[in-house]
Amino acid sequence: MKSTAPRLVIHEERPGFGWIDGLVILALLGLFWSALHFGKGMLVNFDPATQQPLSRSPLEIPYYAGRTLMRMWIAFGFSLSFAVSTGYLAAKNTKARAFILPALDILQSVPVLGFLSATVAGFMALFPGSLLGVECAAIFAIFTGQVWNIAFGFYHSMVTVPNDMQEAASIYGLTRWQRFMTVELPASAHSLIWNSMMAFGGGWFFVAQSEAISVMNKDIKLPGLGSYMAQALERGDNSAAVWAIVAMILLILISDQLVWRPLLAWADKFKVELTESSSPPTSWIYNLFRGVYIFTWLHDRIGRWVERLLRRRKRNWKRRPLKSRRLGTWLWRGVGTGLGLWLGLQVLAAALDAAHALQSALTFKLIGHIAWLGALTLLRVVSMLTLATLIWTPIGVWIGFEPRVARFAQPLAQIGASFPVNMTFPIVVSFFVANRISMNWGSILLIAMGTQWYILFNVIAGAMAIPNDLKEAALVYGLRNWNLWRTLILPGIFPFWVTGACTAAGGAWNASIVAELATWGETTLKADGLGAYIAAVTRTGDSPLIVASIGVMSFFVIVMNKFIWRPLYGFADRRFRLD
Amino acid sequence: MNITPSDKDDLPPVAELCAVSKTFNTAGGHELKVLENINLAVHDGEFLALLGQSGSGKSTLLRCLTGLVAPSAGRALSGGKTCHGVNPEASIVFQTFALYPWLTVEQNVAVGLMARNVTWAARDAAVDRAIELIGLGNYHTAYPRELSGGMRQRVGIARALVAQPKLLCLDEAFSALDVLTGENLRQELLTLWRSPESGLSSIFMVTHNIEEAVEMATRIVVLFPRPGRIGLVLDNPLPYPRDSRDPEFQRLVSVIHESITTMALPDLPQDIPLSGQPVSRGRSRMESIPLVPVGQILGLMSILRDSPELSNIYDISDEIGKEFGETIAIVKAAEILDFIDTPQQDVRFTELGRRFVDADRLARREIFKAQVLKLRLFQIIIATLEETEEVEADQVIQDIASALPYDNPEKTFQTMVAWGRYAGLMDFNANTRTVFVPEGDTGEYVPM
Fold this sequence. Notes:
The complex is a heterodimer.
Chain A: H1 19-41, H2 61-92, H3 94-107, H4 116-126, H5 132-159, H6 163-171, H7 176-210, E1 212-215, E2 218-221, H8 225-235, H9 238-267, H10 284-289, H11 293-319, H12 322-361, H13 364-401, H14 403-418, H15 425-435, H16 439-465, H17 468-476, H18 481-515, E3 517-520, E4 523-526, H19 530-540, H20 543-575
Antiparallel strand pairs in A: 1-2, 3-4
Helix pairs in contact in A: 1-2, 2-3, 2-5, 2-7, 2-9, 3-5, 4-5, 5-7, 7-8, 7-9, 7-14, 8-9, 12-20, 13-16, 13-18, 13-20, 14-16, 16-18, 18-19, 18-20, 19-20
Chain B: H1 5-10, E1 15-25, E2 31-42, E3 47-51, H2 58-66, E4 73-78, E5 81-82, E6 90-93, H3 105-111, H4 120-133, H5 149-161, E7 167-171, H6 179-194, E8 202-207, H7 210-216, E9 219-224, E10 229-235, H8 247-264, H9 294-306, H10 313-320, H11 324-336, E11 340-341, E12 348-349, H12 351-358, H13 361-372, H14 376-388, E13 390-392, H15 393-403, H16 409-423, E14 427-429, E15 434-436
Parallel strand pairs in B: 3-8, 3-9, 6-7, 7-8
Antiparallel strand pairs in B: 1-2, 1-4, 4-5, 9-10, 11-12, 13-15, 14-15
Helix pairs in contact in B: 3-4, 3-5, 4-5, 7-8, 8-11, 9-11, 10-11, 12-13, 13-16, 15-16
């Protein structure tokens, strides 16, 4: 029975290669060349004693930016694969879940910047005499800054794949790999890409910080935008600082436009709902590359070839007798258990060592002092949250209610959140010095520079999500001013505000390590707080103090998560969910 | 596709459940027995329909039969052999379609063949054939988003047929579609099943729509609820195409109606004069309450008052536009409150019911309260509330779970609170999760 209905979708199928394909091929080649070119720089010999200062010429900036970008992408690659595999494991295996979820929860509360010096020393020992060690440490710092969010997001979308989709996959006998590729990964793609974009944005802060660090009183500078900036800060070089800021903004903008926007536009088709979204995200580059023939060509040639290969392997797999397979499983299990045991013992031994070192180095008085500093930083974090909320909530709501403004303001706020706070120092610190503002107060502003944006764009998203009929009802019943805010706006944006404020608070603890101790040329401003303390002990390389201060900070973060954010999330979900 | 009994004896059933029981844990962690001692076989060439009210365990039975869910006791067989895991000979058409929105029609259909070792060419040919067969000829590269509900379900059917399963299962496959689309698709599926080139032999359909079952199936099984067990098995030898105005068709429908009704609303063994008797049918045993909002009971009463000609349950079901099972639940709720009486299929006001429906709001509430207090379930919690003023919801749910093992205790609790609120007997604080006696007059409570 042939339907006579007209063809629903007319695909403009390109007959073959066009100019756009040439462009794509060129771009791919360019990408390949850049990876080689910048990658080569990572493998050079390195000795902290004889390292060359970075060039001050702005002409070198593109090269440094490339190196920085390379680090970001390598770290992101690791983050993505780690996040997907842990998230998958946690979603599929109840035993693994019981261990992974709490571990992720604690790890994401640890301010990674404090560990930077320890990891640098470790990686340098791993690759003696090569720059690769320092590179790895920087990449590791970015990785630890972005991986937890992606992992949590992926786990969450894995467990919320609609049950009927999973059942359909079971009834049609899909293998694990097929199920992952046809059901689970696509169903998670949207949230995975969104979380990746946010995490990547957060990564700029870590890359800027980890490129130039001091370990055991030795300054190490990796060629990159962050270290170029750090050098400009040390020397008080105005024009170099401006160049670096401009380059940073450009880098963030280009990543956003060339990578994340097109990915988001593409990911719209992976939304689980069957309804068409009213205003799908758009991207000019996505529209440009949509019908590129080269991808179809590659898919047809290579995709089919890979699948045939997999099929053949599967057939072989099936033919193997059951017994040997079982033996293989046992073997793997044995190896896995052995490895796990060995790792566990190593960790235990290290922990015992650390505890011993701590015990001898720490006194109650010292711990009390660190806790007091932590309380000061906590005060700063809370005041930052309050200030940012008071200022940005009305603005965010106004933007969210004006769809035309929101369309460009929201991405701008995201970019603001991506911009590394330490790059704003030249402007802010010279302002503080000129106006004789104490760093104890000024650091609140510095912390806010990096984290307020999370509150802003979440409030915008919340205001945009308030359903139109509720707004109309408020209009009809003449709700105005405080009544309008109390009955509609505040409850509507509350769940979004909680998300934004929680992210901002988490970022603020990390930012305090940078923001409580700012240097600009000869001027160094220092605030009393745990962040400045961690920065100082990291510089001197006093391990017991590093561990103790980071432990205290992690404790503050965990307590805040447990007693403030978790209950607030629950409350928002129970009372103010809009569906 | 009719098969003589001797054929049936020769071939093992396509799929079979032997003494299957299934117990689930509810969201609140209570054990709930959904299926008990099910023996059911789907034979080759048969179109078997499984009927039952919502919540009777139909879907669970289907999932046990296809191996998606492992039974707690008993065995699932496929072609005479015990089936571990998913039955490779079965496929399912889902109520919600369960299409993958990111795959085109073609790719969605090809999912049905993913597990099979077929060459690319054979795969493409099979997909094309399934798509043509189900009338999706020009939609190969469309995404499910772009299709109407009926077209989406066609994709679901094509995907289920593409691997040529021995058993096609339909899980309420037509109930998410509008009436016209559903009817059209039913007819097309019947045509497919009856034409030999489709390769389709056995169909197992789960539905709550009695007419749908009688229209399509060669054998009809009615599942009785709480816990789900096989109630009635009927052969349906009517020739195709079937006409719903045919007296034999009508007779089958009414036989099924009757069996469901007598199951849900058993007539009392002896004729006690019910009306006007203050404490009727001294209920000592805990009785489960139908999960029906108060507003629907009131609505039923109003309709019965306004349209006295509606005297039997299926006419009422037609009038209020609810499926038969739901209507039964509402009628049953009104019956356990003694507002109506149901001799056989008929529905009659009791004297109390007439008084109730004619009363004003406050008087209605008083009557409702008096009736509710006669229910064992309410007596127990009211007694506790008199002692302590406040009871933890979890405590109440625990009590319900132990007293009514076949009911979902959380849902029963919600219904109980709704009835109790209307009666002004109790209130529930969702934040503290406690049940308490409301202070003062709460006569303004409007049932929803």
